[in-house]
Amino acid sequence: MNLFTEQVLNGVGNGVVYGSVALALVLIFRTTSVLNFAQGEMALFSTYISWKLTTEGLPVVGAIALSAAIAFVGGAVIERLLIRPVEEARSPLNVVIVTLGLFLGLNSLAQLVFGTDPQLMPSPFPSGEVAGIDKDTIGLIVVLLAECALLWLLLQKTRIGLKLRAVASNPESSRLHGINAGTVLMLGWALSAAIGAIAGSLVASERTGFDASLMQQILVYAFAAAALGGFDSLIGAVVSGLIIGVADALTIEYVEALDGIEVVLPLGLILVVLLVRPNGLFGKRTVERV
Amino acid sequence: MSLLQLSNVSGGYGPVQVLHGIDLAVEEGHVAVVLGANGAGKTTTLRAISGVIPTRGEILFDGRPINGRRPEAVARLGIAHVPQGRGTFTELTVEDNLRVGAVNRRDDQIESDLARWFEVFPRLGERRHQLAGSMSGGEQQMLALARAMMARPRLLLLDEPSLGLAPLVTRDLFAHLGELNRQEGLTVLVVEQNANLALEVGHWGYVLESGRIVVQGPAAQLHDDESVRKAYLGF
Fold first, then answer.
1. Is the CB of residue B133 less than 8 Å away from at least one CB of chain A?
2. What residues in B contact A88, CB-CB < 8 Å?
3. What confidence score (pLDDT) does residue A288 get?
């Protein structure tokens, strides 16, 4: 395999992770109109839980599933206890500040509880390659596509999905239609935390070790992916994640000027998207006529 | 017994009291009209009924007190409130907007209701897969009415449906409303500034001034009463 193909595959492997986290960001944004800066650290905490469970002897897949379930509950609790009280203050900025606080708090808490030494998360996928592609990468792609499909079905085809979309679009009007907005928002956070838990655990399992900085760089790339995808499109988040992963891998290999400062790429991309095409590649234009 | 009965209801926003002891009743199968100038408390009255703001006094729906309930609980009792701004779910399609109206229904007639409202409002049918936010104000008001009807409400609260609409569109809207009332016995409480049209459709009218009911009577009588028209209604 030549260097170029190898770099593209590398990029796809990373891009899938960016896509997963972007998916979680987009889900919260779509259902609650909040940018959750703590998404990465929530995933980090869950990853530590997955890892801890494997050290207690649970099989890897079981550990990740249990951790996702714990994250589901944790996400709901965070929404209920931390987000909702400030949301009622009616300024979106308050929620953003709380998520920033959560970002710092969860990161520190993870180090306090699980220590600062790098840990090894075992992979749920078999090792080896198929047609020159790591089975890890293939496994990640399958999981991501499955998540996407399930979420799409949930949002578009179920009653609770309709409620989620209604609350995201117009919380006050939703309440006048008998929808309990609080419960729905809680569900949005719960689902998104569970997706983050799976993404974090899988990315950690791909690496030769992880510590509390695992998700920080990934979050920046995921934000870029979500922005590129238009912030309200699930499939947009995934495709953009892949685009950014590949672009990043190729930049690292071929653009010497950016050596060591590759993170300029996603940040630059966020800027360009916001300036040139604020709705992203896949976002619906929000038109409001009165 | 009236379907809706407000007795000495007061309320407002924080320290600002807007309603000062409102007495108001809506009979089953009637269209009641609340008229008044800007700031008289028309919107606040509706918000008090649907539980959006805290109130004092008594609000009875079908004989049961509903004050203190949260908006979603009031809605589930069968009160559909079309707020100012029409409550459109702009990022959802027209069809999904209508489905939100029926989101708490458990019967199997949602699909046939959907077909029915697309028939009543052909414009909505043509645009069923379009985002609701891209529609004109008049179309969104039709959508709001159809969405409220998808809940099969026992009482419909309408907040200034004519606001921002062209006169012809407003006339069309009230024609639909009158038809729904006559054909299906839909009970409506509508607050309006367009007194002329609203009183033509309505059975009973109230005039609200500074949070108090100052005049009430049969709609036709208010409509024709020279002194009331001059003093409060401006037409």
1. yes
2. none
3. 46
